[in-house]
Amino acid sequence: MTMHDYHKPVLLGEAIDGLNIREDGIYVDATFGGGGHSREILKRLTAGRLIAFDQDEDAIGNIPKDERLIFLNQNFRYMKNFLKYYGQLPVDGVLADLGVSSHQLDRAERGFSSRYEGPLDMRMNQSSEKTARSILNKYDAASLSNVFFLYGEIRQAKKMAERIVSFRQEEQLETTTQLIDVLKPMMPAGRENKFLARVFQALRIEVNGELDALKALLTQSNEVVRAGGRLVVISYHSLEDRLVKNFMKAGNFEGKQEKDFYGRLIAPFQPVSKLITPGEQELSENPRSRSAKLRIAEKN
Asked: Which CATH code fits 119-208?
């Protein structure tokens, strides 16, 4: 399997340029995946070092043989601890390409996509106990409603949750197809795919604790990136992008800007470019890039 078969990196050139790489610098690829971003970073390093994280065991097969690379089969929420352990502090830049890889989406047995029948899994870390199946069959109606409303921004969340709870009194939900069938009467005509994308997004975020992990990564970036270093994040939905935007602008997740005694903005990072999205050529070559948003900030 080639790297492009596994996952075609989105906004690759723009993200790597955003890191403003020094050839002897230390960089973090928080979401290794198919290794596309890591390979480009390594091309620009001489005596530098790259530390890459990915909690999915499938990513291990994409690791290039390069003594400048330290690969960690771990969630990026533990970035600071591992950088400290390996003596790689401070770093010159952190890159995170959030979301699900093409490889994960296209493997029916992982359960990430509504396009294939598969088990209700959705785990990034396949050794984790929490799955979409356990959430759908064990959460009470109020908890399920919160997941769909908060992480999928679905207005009919309460009704959806009640429908699922009612169904599972007769039989357990096991497959993606079962879930889709249960929710079919609620799907808006002509917008079924968009509706299902939100349902699957909500479950995936809950299964993997994605927003908490992102908050941890952003907070730790402030602690590990040196002054003048870069933070580069590609997000794929509004919940992620809002956290990234607010953190880069204000140093917190609410976007509340605080000023010092002299009226100067107190923020650990300074955005260095406007929001970057894929151009027409990339959209035509890689339709999955359509929701990508790239933000770049420099450490003050």
From this structure: 1.10.150.170
Tokens of 299: 């450490």
Distance, CA of 289 to CA of 280 (rounded, Å): 10
Residue 36, sorted as left (phi over 0), alpha (psi -120 to 50) or beta, turns out to be alpha
Q: pTM higher than 0.90, yes or no?
A: yes
Given a contact cutoff of 8 angstroms between Cβ atoms, the answer to whether 108 and 118 are in contact is: yes
Q: What is the number of other CB atoms lying within 10 angstroms of the CB of residue 242? A: 15
Dig out the tokens for 248 from the structure.
């880069």
Q: What integer pLDDT is reported at residue 1 of this predicted model? A: 40
CB 232 within 8 A of CB 296: yes
Q: Where are the domains of the chain?
A: 3-102+210-299, 119-208
Helices within 45-152 (DSSP H only): 79-85, 102-106, 132-138, 141-152
Beta strands in the chain (DSSP E): 26-29, 49-53, 69-72, 91-97, 225-235, 258-259, 265-266, 269-271, 293-299
Q: Is the pLDDT of residue 6 over 60?
A: no
> Residue type for 45, please?
L
Cα distance from N-terminal residue to C-terminal residue, the chain: 41
User: Is residue 233 within 8 Å of 282, Cβ to Cβ?
Assistant: no
Spelled out in words, what is the top-level CATH class assigned to the domain 3-102+210-299? alpha beta
Q: What is the dihedral of CA 242, 270, 94, 22, to 10 degrees?
A: 150
- Name the helix (H) or strand (E) containing 178: helix 176-183
Q: How far is residue 35's CA from residue 16's CA, in Å, rounded to a whole number?
A: 13
pLDDT in tens, 18-61: 999 999 999 999 999 999 999 999 999 999 999 999 999 989 99
CA-to-CA distance for 150 and 232, rounded, in angstroms? 25
Confidence of residue 7 (pLDDT cuts 50, 70, 90): low
